[in-house]
Specification:
Blueprint: H1 2-12, E1 23-27, E2 33-34, E3 40-45, E4 49-50, E5 56-59, E6 65-66, E7 80-84, E8 92-102, E9 107-116, H2 134-164, H3 170-199, H4 209-217, H5 219-243, H6 250-268, H7 279-309, H8 312-345, H9 350-353, H10 355-384, H11 436-468, H12 473-479, E10 492-499, E11 508-516, E12 521-531, E13 541-548, E14 553-557, E15 561-562, E16 567-574, E17 578-587, E18 593-602
Parallel strand pairs: 2-9
Antiparallel strand pairs: 1-3, 3-7, 4-8, 5-6, 5-8, 8-9, 10-11, 11-12, 12-16, 13-14, 13-17, 15-16, 17-18
Helix pairs in contact: 1-2, 1-11, 2-3, 2-6, 2-7, 3-4, 3-5, 5-6, 6-7, 7-8, 7-11, 8-10, 10-11
Length: about 600
């Protein structure tokens, strides 16, 4: 299923991949106020994660970075990340920016806050770093997609040669060589770009020897090294196979199968199947899914080349063999795909209640269309396998018969068969034998049918690509037990422009409203009024009210008081989470005032 996906993505352009790990909880809790400074900050995820040298950055109330210890796993658990804090922390709000590597090899990042003693209302934005360098992300994704494409072509072409046993394998040499070199080059690029991809830096960081050394000791890096080793063994196997006359022996098939399994394991061991529930079964399913994908779709490419180059007599045996192999591959894809969908979905309600489930439904609808296209391919396959037409001159020609075959009747001797149909009396007539012209026509139609099958598969697998970049519903449900980190900053800053229409400069400006911590319960509100020249101005009144239209709550008056240059309060109780309407009224004179509404998000 990967071949069509890669083709579509290469044409459409690489898109950033989304990780499948979700933050389950933090200690201290996001947005909490603790009486004493904690000794550690601990994050817990839905699956195992890898740590980086700069996995944590902690910023104090003054927005300066706090010196911390080395990031480790808490209590030896691979699904946690912990950093040590200094012994003494000043009172105020601390922001923690974090970045780890998910078990499916994608980096995950976010931020959250906690306060020591009391909250400190700050409007300064903390630089938590880039989530991903755009150029690095595109290069890495392109190399990843090329690796999938090359693996499917390599496995499928080799399987076609070993299992379908075409008389002439010369048309298959070019795709085999192209696939091998493409997979080798893309794997080398992935190995070099792994460090900058994890840290979110530019491609130039790929030449940092220290970063490359860390990559080679991590699970994704070791998997890529193993892939290179399997590719070298595969090259030796293919060279030896091309020099032997007997290419279809059981030993060659066993070695080829072993190499294909080893190649598929380099993906399964470094991606999502290696974490979560039922890891051994999930990895087995992933390997079978990848192999079936290659045998089917890579074999389709080999079949197209064979249809173009081989003779009709050769195709009579090759096409039915591949048809049976493709059918078995589709069955394996259906079983493993069903299991992997269940593993990611978690419950039937998630099928329609989550983005992951809805994408899965769209994929199933596409698979139904794909199976319909494959049905037509099988129909033309059966027609190609029909016996060739018999010429009149050959009717009375004695043909050597294999041992044990019934004796051929002499000319004029009754054969017990119908003269018109050639079938035993009482049985339905068989399909008329096909001529060479009919055979060529059927071969062309089969080639078109296979091309249509690949095109439909490309559409289905475009949906699959989006699905693999979507957070699984099971992980989403686990993470929903606690608000995800990084969903809101420590304070919400809203800039409200106003214009009273008074025709003077004092009647236009902005109000910067800070809402802290923008969560259910008590909140602090500060409002600073600036004129059209961005300088602070003094106005007679600023009034702010909050309304939750969806629950018919409010308006709740913030009851701001003038603090000599700005307006504030520390006791606005917002009892429910949701999208609140904040109405800001600015009065610049006894008769000139204006009200402006903005939406603010209040977290649970």
């Amino acid at each position: 299923m990967l071949l069509g996906t890669v083709l579509v993505l290469l044409l459409a352009g690489a898109a950033p991949a989304s990780a499948h790990a979700a933050l389950r909880g933090t200690d201290p809790d996001d947005g909490s106020v603790v009486g004493q400074a904690p000794r550690h900050v601990t994050l817990t995820f839905t699956e195992s994660v890898g740590l980086l040298d700069d996995s944590f950055r902690v910023f104090g109330p003054d927005q300066r970075r706090v010196h911390t210890g080395e990031a480790t796993h808490a209590d030896g658990r691979s699904d946690t990340a912990r950093i040590g804090l200094p012994g003494k922390l000043a009172q105020g709000t601390y922001t923690v920016a974090w970045r780890v590597v998910s078990a499916d090899s994608h980096p995950v990042s976010g931020a959250f806050s906690f306060s020591v003693g009391k909250r400190s209302a700050t409007t300064a934005q903390v630089d938590t770093g880039l989530a991903e360098d755009p150029l690095t992300g595109r290069l890495y994704d392109t190399a990843r997609y090329l690796a999938y494409l090359a693996a499917a072509l390599l496995v499928g072409t080799a399987a076609f040669a070993l299992l379908c046993r075409p008389a002439h394998t010369s048309p298959l040499r070019r795709p085999l060589v192209t696939a091998w070199w493409t997979l080798l080059g893309s794997t080398a690029v992935l190995l070099l770009l792994r460090a900058p991809y994890e840290t979110g830096t530019g491609p130039a960081a790929a030449f940092d020897t220290a970063a490359l050394g860390r990559t080679l000791t991590g699970r994704p890096g070791l998997a890529l090294l193993a892939r290179l080793a399997v590719l070298l063994l595969t090259a030796a196997f293919l060279i030896r196979l091309s020099r032997r006359r007997d290419r279809q022996g059981p030993a060659a098939l066993a070695i080829g199968t072993t190499l294909a399994i080893g190649l598929a394991l380099t993906w399964a061991a470094a991606e999502h199947a290696s974490a979560g529930i039922q890891v051994p079964l999930a990895m087995t399913s992933s390997v079978l899914h990848l192999l079936a994908t290659g045998v089917w779709l890579g074999g389709l490419v080999a079949l197209l080349l064979t249809l173009r180059r081989s003779s009709g007599d050769d195709l009579v045996e090759i096409v039915p063999r591949f048809s049976r192999i493709a059918f078995a591959s589709v069955c394996v894809l259906a079983v493993t795909g069903l299991y992997q969908s269940w593993r990611g979905l978690g419950s039937l309600s998630a099928l329609t209640g989550t983005s992951y489930g809805r994408l899965l439904l769209a994929k199933l609808a596409g698979v139904a269309v794909l199976l319909l296209a494959a049905r037509y391919s099988r129909r033309w396959t059966a027609r190609i396998a029909a016996p060739a037409a018999v010429t009149p001159a050959a009717v009375h020609e004695r043909v050597p018969q294999p041992v044990g075959a019934p004796a051929e009747p002499e000319p004029g001797e009754p054969s017990g068969r119908s003269e018109e149909s050639g079938t035993p009396p009482g049985e339905p007539a068989a399909e008329p034998p096909s001529s060479d012209a009919d055979r060529d026509t059927r071969r062309r139609r089969l080639r078109r049918s296979v091309l249509a099958e690949v095109a439909v598969a490309a559409v289905v697998l475009m949906i699959t690509t989006v699905l693999t970049g979507t957070l699984p519903a099971r992980a989403q449900a686990e993470a929903a037990q606690q608000a995800p980190a990084g969903s809101l900053p420590p304070t919400t800053l809203v800039t409200v422009p106003f214009d009273t229409g008074a025709g003077s400069l004092s009647g236009r400006g902005t109000v910067q409203v800070t809402l802290d911590p923008a969560r259910v319960g008590e909140n602090g509100v500060q409002a600073v009024v600036s004129g059209s020249d961005t300088g602070l101005v003094v106005v007679p009144e600023v009034r702010i009210t909050f309304t939750l239209p969806s629950r018919k709550v409010g308006p709740i008056d913030a009851e701001l008081t003038d603090q000599g240059g700005y307006w504030s309060t520390n006791s606005v109780n917002l009892p429910l989470a949701g999208n609140w309407t904040m109405k800001t009224t600015v009065r610049v004179s006894d008769v000139d005032q204006v009200s402006v509404e903005e939406q603010v998000r209040i977290a649970p």
